């Protein structure tokens, strides 16, 4: 299986661990703008 190429100049989708909201942004937010919770990039593998 080939790893997906991630373009750092394009928008990515981030997910809040606390409230589950999805945020689409070009740069990673430091925290969820809605609840202040921790977020993760949904394109990153969770292994």
TrEMBL record:
Bilayer-crossing regions: none
Domain DUF7129: 9-42
Gene3D superfamilies from the UniProt entry: RNA polymerase ii, chain L
Name of protein: Rubrerythrin-like domain-containing protein
């Amino acid at each position: 299986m080939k790893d997906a190429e991630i373009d750092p100049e394009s928008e990515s989708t981030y997910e809040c661990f606390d409230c589950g909201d999805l945020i689409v942004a070009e740069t990673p937010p430091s925290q969820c703008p809605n609840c202040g919770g921790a977020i993760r990039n949904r394109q990153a593998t969770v292994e």
